[in-house]
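Convert to structure. Protein one:
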Amino acid sequence: MASKGYAQSRLTQTGRAAQLWVIEWWRLVHLGALILVLTLSPSSYSPQSRAILARHIYLNTAPILLWFTVLCALVTVVLTRIVLVTALSYGLSQYALQVVIRVLVLELIPLTAALFVALRCTIPDGAELTAMQASGELDEMRRQGIEPVRREVLPRVVAGMFSGITLAALSCVVALVVAYIATYGFALSGLAAYTRLFGQVFSPAVTLIFVLKTLFFCLAVSLIPMASALYGMSEASVRTSAEMRGLVRMFAVILLIEVASLVGNYY
């Protein structure tokens, strides 16, 4: 009887955990759809809303843009030099730049930009939203007829996506320019070969996967911290906080996106 009761208790706990897991992911999908609708709605861009959105975009992008670009340029110089020297020692120097472009531009920069934005911008924004939820500020907005998702969540999500896309796009351009200079110097003689190599790497299919991966990375790091802050989800487990569960969920989604992009690019 004791073993039967234990098995029944474990089964109940497993069912409750599965139910909460489905609810959490459904809330995330629902919030993403709501944010998409609000983003495309003209009513979301009143003068006051535009001012709030502009402030979040500036705070999430301007302070980190220069430092991330400089860091990307330094990493590009080091990585290009390492790949060139290694390829030359094995007699494979003709493949060195292609490896740099594939590893750095296609894989590392979008992932690094998304994680950088998450750690610097969206996770602190989620913590700020959690504090507003705990203090009752969001409930007070609802009593005043103000929708918190439109006023507080939408600007943070859009600003996080804008910051991630901007960092990734600018860093890719800087990395390509720095890689060319590190290989050919400041001469224009290698521009034709470099352009042809770039076209060989960035085929239409690879370009589409690159763009979609960057967009989904930015969406994941912008949306998941806000969903964890808005819905709490602390009832799912007393052993882990909502922020920690949101962080684990964000890294799981990023991993799935990266695996899917690798399958699309190389299989």
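Protein two, convert as well:
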Amino acid sequence: MSSVERRFTFVNIMFWVGIAFLYLPMVVLVVYSFNESRLVTVWGGWSVKWYGELFRDRQLMSAVLRSLEVAFYSSTAAVFMALFASVVMVRIRGFRSRVLFSGMITAPLVMPDVIIGLSLLLLFVAMGQIVGWPQNRGLVTVWIAHSTFCLAYSTVVISSRLREMDRSLEEAALDLGATPVRAFILITLPIIAPAILSAWLLSFTLSLDDVVIASFVTGPGATTLPIEVFSSVRRGVTPKINALATIIIGLVSLTALISWYVTRRIDQRRRAEMSLQ
């Protein structure tokens, strides 16, 4: 088979069709963020005025900062809890309820967002009536809800890496006199650091993107960016939304590039240290 025939195989064609299907709408969105016209479907020439309009929109920018704050704290709490949950599921051999515990942790993966949001709403209402907290739904309830469903995704990522780790390195540290906690901090954590970083980024993205669960547990003054964008779309899309989406795409691409570079350097350093040993 010649190189030309190999280039036009069915698999290659479907690959590029899939890439175009995924990324062509993003390219169109980025181009129309520089549209002069107020109508998003009518091209009126090149302009950057909608970026200025975006930064002058205090309501929208407040929603952006609010969503970033919730996503940061939710992903941090989810990764912190997922690390302990992964250690319990993978390392504690005498834990008889491992299967039940694992199923309860990963249940949000297969549960519809509507069910999660409604159950959390009922929980917060019942807690408010019984113990008096939370009195109102706001950023705290959104943070708790996002931490809950991000915990499942973080646990899957971290526990998979922890299960594949070679325990001989940690056992060698124990033989040399290190305590289990010290061996875990100095040996295990650096090895699974790429998985922890991946889990944090995944949780951050899921929290930043959520609209269904947040719509159940949010309250006045705690509107997140996806809810704000969804409300503005129903009123009529303006190129400000395109400009905001373009900035988010750029930041996500830059974050993914930095994450890939950091993970690659960590893996290279770990392989170099293992080769010297």
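DSSP finds twelve helices and no strands in the chain. The chain has a mean pLDDT of 87.
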